[in-house]
C-alpha cells in the first residue's frame, strides 16, 4: 500500500524526529516542502480529496491514540480488599472459625458453637458484599469516565482544507496529507511541516521542556509537532504524522496509553475547599474512633480477665483465646463504625452524577473538584464579549470622511479613495479562516465563522455591496508579505501586501491605540487632514466616546504605503505614521438572560466583576445593562493602567494591602491585560479581609488567559471561541460561552456540597450512636448490644446505600437563596451539629432504655448476660436500624426546614434505596438467625420498634425549635497547619500505599483515595464547536 505514496509511515516518523536546523536540512535534502507534498500526492492549495481518506488511513494510520487498558473487575476486587480493617476482620473471623470447628470439647454448648460459626460466616459474607459493592462502583465510574472522554474526543475539531474547501472536521478524522490551518491558540493535533506562516511562534515545552517560544516558518524551523501550542501567528502545514506515529503519540504509548498523560502533579497540588475540610474532619473522627476502639477492647479484656482469672480462678485456655479474639473483632467493628468510610463513595457518586447532569447545562467539567468548589464561589471575574454578550457582532455606526453615520451607508456616498481602500483593508487584514456562511434557511442571518469582530467587518463589506472573497482571491494568504497577528499586547492586527512597486500595510485595532499611531486622516471629499493632538482628542471626544457610551466596541482602520522594503522586524517603526480610513462602532448585544443570571448571583452572595479589553465607556455601559453596576452604588471602574499603578508601591512592587483597598469595590476592569486579570484574581484569593476568605471563578478565552485560569479556584474556558491553551488551563468549559451556564455550575456545585453535608449529617448520627452503644455496652454489660455482623450491616452496607441515596438529590433554585460558605467556614454548621447531637441523644435514650429496662415493658426475656441471641437484643438492633432509616429522611434537610418530605418524590433513587433497606432489614430480623444474631420478632414487638423509630421524626421537629446560635461551634485546625501536617501525611501515604499498606490507618486511606476515585481523564484535545446537548430544567 505504501507504494501508492513516496513515503511510508516509518520514513515519515524518522523525518519528524529531526528538529530545528536538522529538520530544515532533511526537508531540503528531500527536495523541499513542495517535493514532499508531491510524494504524498497532496495539493498545497486544495489539499487531498475526500475519496483518498480511507486509503491514507489504512497506509499511515488513524489520528487516534489507544487508551490505556481498563482495569479488570478482578483487579478492582483485589484493590478493594486491601483495606487494613477488612484484612484484620477477615483474619480474626478465620481464626474464630477455625477455633470453633477444630478446638472444642464434648461439654461445649452446641448452640454457642453454632452461634460462633454463623457469626464468622456472617463476617465473611458481609466483607464479600462490601468488596463487591466497592469494585462494582469503581468499575461503573471507570466506564462512565471513559465514555465521557470518548464523547469529548468525538467533538474535538480542527480546520483543514480538502477538495479546495475549508472544513472543520473531527481531529480523529485527520490523515497524513491533510492541509491544516494553524492559528493563534491552537493545540496542534498532529505532526506536520510548515507550508506557509505568518509570525508563527510555538510553545514546545510540553515536548522538549524548553520554555522559549520557537519561531516556525519555511525560512526557520519547519517542523510542527502534535501536543504543542501555537502562541502567536498563523499558517498552514501538511500533516506527516498522526496517532501513534506522531511525536506526542510515541511518548504517550511509551508511558502506557492515552491516559498516561494525566497531569499527576497538578492533581496532587490542587485540592478543593471541600477536600481540605473533609481531610480535617476525617482525621479528627479517625483519632476519636481509634481511641474509643482501643478503650473498648481494653475494658472488655480487663473485665473478662478479672471475672475469669481472679474471681473464678480459671486457667488460660483455648476458650479464653476465642473470647479475646471476639473482643478484638468488636473493637475493630467499633473502629469501622467510627470512621465514615462511606464518605469517599458519597463524594465520588455526587460528583460523577453532577458532572453527567452538568453536561446538559453546557458545563464540561475537566477537573471534578471544580464542580463542588464552584458551589463555594464568592466572586466571579467574567469576560464581556461572548459571555455577557451574544458575540454576534454587527457594525451599526461608522465615522467615514468626518461624517458619523448610523446603519450602513451607501457605498456611492463614500469617497472612492476611502471606500475602495477601506473595503480592501477589512477583507485582507483579517484571518482567512474568518468568513460568513449563508444561513441554513431562507431569510436566516449569515453564519459567522471565526473571529466575531472580523465577521462584523466582513459583514459590513457585504452590506456595502462588495465581496471580500474576490479581494482575498487577488491577495491569497501565501502571498501576504507580513502579518502582525493580534495579541493582548498589540491590541491590533496588521497585514502587509505588495502594492505596485512598493508595499502597503493595513492596520485595525482599538481606536485610541490606532489613532495615536496615525499622522493623518481622510476628511470630507477624501482630502487628507493632519492628525494633530487636538484633532485626535476631538475625534475621541465626539466620535469614540459617544459610541462607547452606547455600549459599542470601536475599531479604527488605517493604512500606510512604503516605496521600498522596510525592516519588518522593527514593528514600532513600521506601524506608525498611519492614515486613518474610518472608525466603526460594533454592537454586541447583551444576552437577554444575563441580567437575570447576574441578579441571581448577587442574591446568592456572589460578586460579579467584568474584566474586559474594551475601553472604559463601553465596559461601563454593558455593566449597567447587565446589572453589574447599580444606581447609587459606590463602586470602582478602573482601566488596567490605573489599576496597575494603584496596587504597586513606590518601588513598583505589588502589595496585598493595596489590592485589598481596591478589590472589594471594584466592579469593572477595562482595557485590562492578561497580567492585570492574573494580579486581580491572585489578590482576591490571597486576601484575608473577608470573614471566610474568597473563592474566585474566572472566565477566559485567550491563550494569555491561561495563568489567570490556572490561578483561579475555578477556571472557565469558552468552548466556542476559546483557544485550546485556555481550555487546557481551565477546570470547566462553557460549551455555549454563556454566563448563565456559570450560574448553573454554581447551582450544581452547591448541590454537591450540600449532598455531602447531608450524608455527613446522616452518617455521623449513626456513628455516634453505634460507637457510644458499643462502648458503654462493653463497660456496663461486658458485651456490645450490637453484634459484629450487625454493626457491619449498619455501617458498611447501609452507609453505602445511604451515600447512593443522599448523593443523588437534584438541585433546586432554593440553593441560590443562601450565601456561599467560603473557604474557611466549618464543614459542620451549627444547624447540622444541632441535628446530629439532638437525634443522637434521642436514639441513645431509646437504645439504653431498651437495654436496661426493655424486658419490663417489651415482654421479652432479659438478653443481658444471656450469651446467645435474644428477642431483647434483636429489638435493640431493629429499633436502631429503623430509627436510622427515619433519620435518613430528616437528614435531607440542612438548614432547619420543617417539611422534611419536600422534594422526596423527585429523587426516586432515594425512595427505592430506602424501601430496599427496609425490606432487607425485615428479612434480617425475621430470618437472619445466628448469622446476624437475631431472633424473629412478634407483631407487637414490631409495633414497639416502629413507634420509637417514628418518634425521631417528631423529636426532630422539637430540635428545630432550639436556636442554632446556642449550639457550641466546632473549630477546625487552622488550614495552614492542615496543609503542612495532615495533607503532607496523606500525600506520603498516597504514593506509598502499594508498598506499606499494612502500616497505614484506614481513615487516612479513605480520604486520600478521594483523588484516585475522582480523577478525570486528561483532556488534551481542543473543543472548538458547540455540543448539541439537551438543556436542563434549571433555566435560570
TrEMBL record:
One of its GO terms (biological process) is copper ion transport. It catalyses: Ca(2+)(in) + ATP + H2O = Ca(2+)(out) + ADP + phosphate + H(+). It is found in: Endomembrane system; Membrane. Catalyzes the hydrolysis of ATP coupled with the transport of calcium. Its main location: membrane. Belongs to the cation transport ATPase (P-type) (TC 3.A.3) family. The keyword Protein biosynthesis does not apply. PROSITE patterns: ATPASE_E1_E2. The lineage of its organism: Eukaryota, Metazoa, Ecdysozoa, Arthropoda, Hexapoda. NCBIfam families: ATPase-IIB_Ca (TIGR01517), ATPase_P-type (TIGR01494). It comes from the Eukaryota. One of its GO terms (molecular function) is metal ion binding. GO terms for cellular component: endomembrane system; plasma membrane. Its EC number is 7.2.2.10. SUPFAM superfamilies: Calcium ATPase, transduction domain A, Calcium ATPase, transmembrane domain M, HAD-like, Metal cation-transporting ATPase, ATP-binding domain N. It is a multi-pass membrane protein. InterPro entries: ATPase_P-typ_cation-transptr_C, ATPase_P-typ_cation-transptr_N, ATPase_P-typ_cyto_dom_N, ATPase_P-typ_P_site, ATPase_P-typ_TM_dom_sf, ATPase_P-typ_transduc_dom_A_sf, ATPase_P-type_domA, HAD-like_sf. It comes from Gryllus longicercus. The chain crosses the membrane at residues 84-103, 115-136, 278-303, 323-353, 764-784, 836-853, 873-891, 903-929, 941-962. This is Calcium-transporting ATPase. Residues 26-101 form the Cation-transporting P-type ATPase N-terminal domain. Keywords: ATP-binding, Calcium, Calcium transport, Copper, Copper transport, Ion transport, Magnesium, Membrane, Metal-binding, Nucleotide-binding, Translocase, Transmembrane, Transmembrane helix, Transport.
Amino acid at each position: 500500500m505504501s507504494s501508492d505514496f513516496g513515503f511510508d509511515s516509518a520514513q515519515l516518523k524518522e523525518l519528524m524526529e529531526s528538529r530545528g536546523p536538522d529538520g530544515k536540512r532533511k526537508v531540503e535534502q528531500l527536495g523541499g516542502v513542495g517535493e514532499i507534498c508531491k510524494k504524498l500526492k497532496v495539493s498545497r492549495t486544495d489539499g487531498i480529496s475526500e475519496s483518498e481518506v480511507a486509503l491514507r488511513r489504512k497506509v499511515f494510520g488513524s489520528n487516534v491514540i489507544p487508551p490505556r487498558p481498563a482495569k479488570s473487575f478482578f483487579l478492582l476486587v483485589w484493590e478493594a480488599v486491601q483495606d487494613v480493617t477488612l484484612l484484620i476482620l477477615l483474619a480474626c473471623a478465620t481464626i474464630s472459625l477455625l477455633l470453633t470447628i477444630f478446638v472444642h470439647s464434648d461439654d461445649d454448648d452446641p448452640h454457642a458453637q453454632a452461634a460462633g460459626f454463623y457469626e464468622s460466616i456472617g463476617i465473611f459474607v458481609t466483607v464479600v458484599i462490601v468488596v463487591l459493592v466497592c469494585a462494582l462502583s469503581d468499575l461503573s465510574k471507570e466506564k462512565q469516565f471513559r465514555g465521557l472522554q470518548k464523547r469529548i474526543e468525538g467533538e474535538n475539531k480542527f480546520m483543514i482544507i480538502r477538495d479546495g474547501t475549508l472544513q472543520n472536521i473531527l481531529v480523529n478524522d485527520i490523515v497524513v496529507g491533510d492541509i491544516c490551518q494553524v492559528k493563534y491558540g491552537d493545540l496542534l493535533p498532529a505532526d506536520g511541516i510548515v507550508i506557509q506562516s505568518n509570525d508563527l511562534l510555538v510553545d514546545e515545552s510540553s515536548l522538549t521542556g524548553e520554555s522559549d517560544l520557537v519561531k516556525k516558518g519555511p525560512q526557520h524551523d519547519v517542523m510542527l509537532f502534535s501536543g504543542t501550542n501555537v502562541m502567536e501567528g498563523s499558517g498552514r502545514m501538511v500533516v506527516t504524522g498522526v496517532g501513534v506515529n506522531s511525536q506526542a503519540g510515541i511518548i504517550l504509548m511509551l508511558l502506557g496509553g492515552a491516559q498516561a498523560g494525566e497531569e499527576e502533579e497538578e492533581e496532587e497540588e490542587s485540592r478543593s475547599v471541600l477536600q481540605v475540610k473533609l481531610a480535617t474532619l476525617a482525621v479528627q473522627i479517625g483519632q476519636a474512633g481509634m481511641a474509643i476502639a482501643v478503650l473498648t477492647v481494653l475494658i472488655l479484656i480487663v473485665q473478662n480477665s478479672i471475672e475469669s482469672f481472679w474471681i473464678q480462678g480459671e486457667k488460660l485456655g483455648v476458650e479464653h483465646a476465642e473470647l479475646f479474639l471476639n473482643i478484638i473483632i468488636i473493637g475493630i467493628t467499633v473502629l469501622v463504625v467510627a470512621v465514615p468510610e462511606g464518605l469517599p463513595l458519597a463524594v465520588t457518586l455526587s460528583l460523577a452524577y453532577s458532572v453527567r447532569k452538568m453536561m446538559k447545562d453546557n458545563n464540561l467539567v475537566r477537573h471534578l473538584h471544580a464542580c463542588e468548589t464552584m458551589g463555594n464561589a464568592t466572586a466571579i471575574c467574567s469576560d464581556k464579549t461572548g459571555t455577557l454578550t451574544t458575540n454576534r457582532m454587527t457594525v451599526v455606526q461608522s465615522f467615514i470622511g468626518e461624517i458619523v453615520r448610523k446603519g450602513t451607508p451607501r457605498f456611492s456616498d463614500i469617497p472612492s479613495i476611502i471606500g475602495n481602500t477601506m473595503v480592501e483593508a477589512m477583507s485582507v487584514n483579517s484571518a482567512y479562516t474568518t468568513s460568513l456562511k449563508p444561513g441554513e434557511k431562507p431569510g436566516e442571518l449569515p453564519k459567522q465563522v471565526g473571529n466575531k469582530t472580523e465577521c462584523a467587518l466582513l459583514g459590513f463589506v457585504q452590506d456595502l455591496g462588495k465581496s471580500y472573497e474576490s479581494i482575498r482571491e487577488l491577495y491569497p494568504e501565501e502571498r501576504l508579505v507580513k502579518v502582525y497577528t493580534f495579541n493582548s499586547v498589540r491590541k491590533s492586527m496588521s497585514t502587509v501586501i505588495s502594492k505596485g512597486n512598493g508595499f502597503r500595510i493595513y492596520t485595525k485595532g482599538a481606536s485610541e491605540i490606532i489613532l495615536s499611531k496615525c499622522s493623518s486622516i481622510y476628511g470630507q471629499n477624501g482630502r487628507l487632514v493632519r492628525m494633530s493632538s487636538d484633532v485626535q482628542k476631538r475625534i475621541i471626544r465626539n466620535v469614540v466616546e459617544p459610541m462607547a457610551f452606547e455600549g459599542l466596541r470601536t475599531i479604527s482602520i488605517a493604512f500606510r504605503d512604503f516605496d521600498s522594503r522596510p525592516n519588518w522586524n522593527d514593528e514600532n517603526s513600521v506601524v506608525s505614521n498611519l492614515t486613518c480610513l474610518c472608525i466603526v462602532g460594533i454592537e454586541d448585544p447583551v444576552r437577554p438572560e444575563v441580567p437575570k443570571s447576574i441578579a441571581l448571583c448577587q442574591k446568592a452572595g456572589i460578586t460579579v466583576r467584568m474584566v474586559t479589553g474594551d475601553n472604559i465607556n463601553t465596559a461601563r455601559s454593558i455593566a449597567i445593562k447587565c446589572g453589574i453596576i447599580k444606581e447609587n452604588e459606590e463602586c470602582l471602574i478602573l482601566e488596567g493602567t490605573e489599576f496597575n499603578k494603584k496596587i504597586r508601591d513606590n518601588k513598583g512592587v505589588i502589595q496585598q494591602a493595596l489590592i485589598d483597598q481596591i478589590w472589594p469595590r471594584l466592579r469593572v476592569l477595562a482595557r485590562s491585560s492578561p497580567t492585570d486579570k492574573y494580579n486581580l484574581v491572585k489578590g482576591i484569593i490571597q486576601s484575608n479581609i473577608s470573614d471566610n476568605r474568597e473563592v474566585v471563578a474566572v472566565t477566559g478565552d485567550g491563550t494569555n488567559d491561561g495563568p489567570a485560569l490556572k490561578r483561579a479556584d475555578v477556571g472557565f474556558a469558552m468552548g466556542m471561541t476559546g483557544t485550546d491553551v485556555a481550555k487546557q488551563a481551565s477546570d470547566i468549559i462553557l460549551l455555549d460561552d454563556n454566563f448563565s451556564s456559570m450560574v448553573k455550575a454554581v447551582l450544581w456545585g452547591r448541590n454537591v456540597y450540600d449532598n455531602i453535608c447531608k450524608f455527613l449529617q446522616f452518617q455521623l448520627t449513626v456513628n455516634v450512636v453505634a460507637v457510644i452503644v458499643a462502648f458503654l455496652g462493653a463497660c456496663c454489660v461486658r458485651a456490645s448490644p450490637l453484634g459484629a455482623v450487625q454493626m457491619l450491616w449498619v455501617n458498611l452496607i447501609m452507609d453505602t446505600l445511604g451515600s447512593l441515596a443522599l448523593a443523588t438529590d437534584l438541585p433546586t433554585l432554593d440553593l441560590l437563596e443562601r450565601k456561599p460558605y467560603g473557604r474557611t467556614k466549618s464543614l459542620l454548621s451549627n444547624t447540622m451539629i444541632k441535628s446530629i447531637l439532638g437525634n443522637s441523644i434521642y436514639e441513645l435514650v431509646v437504645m439504653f432504655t431498651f437495654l436496661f429496662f426493655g424486658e419490663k415493658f417489651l415482654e421479652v426475656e432479659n438478653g443481658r448476660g444471656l450469651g446467645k441471641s435474644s428477642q431483647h437484643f434483636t429489638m435493640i438492633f431493629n429499633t436502631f436500624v429503623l430509627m436510622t432509616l427515619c433519620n435518613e429522611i430528616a437528614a435531607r434537610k440542612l438548614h432547619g426546614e420543617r417539611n422534611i418530605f419536600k422534594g422526596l418524590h423527585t429523587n426516586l433513587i432515594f425512595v427505592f434505596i430506602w424501601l430496599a433497606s427496609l425490606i432487607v432489614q425485615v428479612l434480617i430480623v425475621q430470618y437472619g438467625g445466628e448469622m446476624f444474631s437475631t431472633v424473629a420478632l412478634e407483631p407487637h414487638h414490631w409495633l414497639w420498634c416502629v413507634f420509637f423509630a417514628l418518634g425521631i421524626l417528631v423529636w426532630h421537629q422539637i430540635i428545630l425549635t432550639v436556636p442554632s446560635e446556642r449550639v457550641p461551634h466546632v473549630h477546625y485546625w487552622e488550614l495552614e497547619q492542615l496543609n503542612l501536617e495532615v495533607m503532607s501525611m496523606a500525600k506520603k501515604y498516597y504514593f506509598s500505599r502499594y508498598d506499606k499498606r499494612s502500616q497505614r490507618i484506614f481513615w487516612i486511606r479513605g480520604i486520600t483515595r478521594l483523588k484516585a476515585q475522582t480523577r478525570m481523564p486528561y483532556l488534551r484535545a481542543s473543543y472548538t464547536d458547540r455540543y448539541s446537548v439537551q438543556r436542563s430544567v434549571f433555566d435560570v
